Amino acid sequence: MDFPGHSLPVRGVAESQSEMTELILPNDTNTLGNLLGGRLMHFIDLVGAMAAYRHARTHVVTASMDHIDFIAPVHVGDLLILKSSLNRAFNTSMEVGVKVWVENTIAGMHRHVASAYLTFVAIDSQGRRVPVPQLAPESEDEKRRFADAARRRELRQRELERKRAAKPAEVEVQGSVRPGRN
Ligand SMILES: CC(C)(COP(=O)(O)OP(=O)(O)OC[C@H]1O[C@@H](n2cnc3c(N)ncnc32)[C@H](O)[C@@H]1OP(=O)(O)O)[C@@H](O)C(=O)NCCC(=O)NCCS
């Protein structure tokens, strides 16, 4: 999709950097007092969106979240620390990296518990996709993440194409769309 006439600023990674700290309460946990995986994904989505908003400065929707490894449990009473920043901007989409640590409130120890890559798509108030500012990586780490993000995008696109090709045709039934039976 072309967006003629758009001249957008170029932004640094620091402009998108975001952080969120959550105290884990009983409502966030399972019957053993461990943080629910779905709740952690919710926090990851939120802190990821913060970075995407700060970069794009428009509305954003989550297009995908890559697979997450839950490396260590998080317990009720722990502090969850989430950090996010932009890895790369494409046309209307952006890859954001999120890293999560747990801090034991008594011992003060930090431990890495999860990492994830999310893709957000920028939209206007009518829901139309809009181009995003490009990202200018500066440090060696930022440049490495920038290059890796392009490789991950290629893998995602290949997977999306494979899924689309495997999907049965959709048929129109009295104004609504339902999956076709082939
Ligand atoms: C995400 C969404 C906007 C993509 O729209 P689409 O019409 O499928 O768009 P396209 O296939 O033309 O792709 C548009 C951009 O999104 C990216 N994209 C689309 N699907 C993607 C996916 N699953 N993962 C990563 N990127 C994706 C494309 O690479 C493209 O990026 P680019 O503009 O930077 O080149 C659309 O699927 C949507 O609105 N999904 C629902 C989002 C939502 O509600 N999220 C909250 C969770 S409930």
From TrEMBL:
Coiled coil: none annotated. Residues 141-151, 157-170 have a biased composition (Basic and acidic residues). It comes from the Bacteria. Residues 14-126 form the HotDog ACOT-type domain. GO terms for biological process: acyl-CoA metabolic process. Keywords: Hydrolase. Gene3D superfamilies: Hotdog Thioesterase. Residues 132-151, 157-182 are annotated as: Disordered. One of its GO terms (cellular component) is cytoplasm. GO terms for molecular function: long-chain fatty acyl-CoA hydrolase activity. Belongs to the acyl coenzyme A hydrolase family. This is Acyl-CoA hydrolase.
